[in-house]
Amino acid sequence: MSESSVRVDVCDFVSTITLDRPQVRNAIDLPTALALERALDDAERSGDVRVIVLAATGPVFSAGMDLKALTQTGDRPITRRRGAFGIAAHPPEKPTVAAVQGKALGGGLEIALTADVIVASEDAEFGLPEVKRGLIAAAGGVLRLPRRIPRNIALEMIMTGAPISAQRAYELGLVNRVVPPGRALDVALELAREIALNAPLAVRMSKWIADRSVDWPAGELFDRMQPKARLIRESKDAAEGALAFVEKRQPVWVGE
Asked: pTM for this one?
């Protein structure tokens, strides 16, 4: 797939979806949001994709909403199904890694927050400056950030609008790995390929349980998990994993 504002590359069961508007700091207008939604839909449907990598060209990951385009057209970058930026309301179900090079502010951070894992360059910055413009980070920032880092730190970022460094984000657990400038995508791809080597159904179900179980009552955790765990235990991939281990070879996953 090729779009003017979004590029897609599939290799080794990894779909790399790249925002390609460096001339406007990868700000998102409506056509870009629609292109991102289509790229995500294609990746979710494809049997050749097990992991998604979100990346961007140029020195800025994303400046969020394209305000210039908004003033010119009046069209907000919100899609019918996936919401703001074509991703915020309904992020991918497949494992997702964000490769953040440079600043991820406002909508840029909200896009990064849709990923399960974040790899950041040393010069990256993360922030939600919406309050400085009389707005709130309504594309997931005020919802997801307090779930990813301590609430008081998240509120400080939300209420002051001040950004934090990649190193600080790593210390808080928001970022998984901090790498030299120019290496974020390479390391994100290495991590994505490592995930893609594992049984895709087991990985996706593990993610599903980890996400959903946060709101389950403590006394019901194992009872609610068991039907999903049983599905995986009885899958073809579980049998293949055991056989491959005994035969000392790499397993051949079928995703069933």
From this structure: 0.94
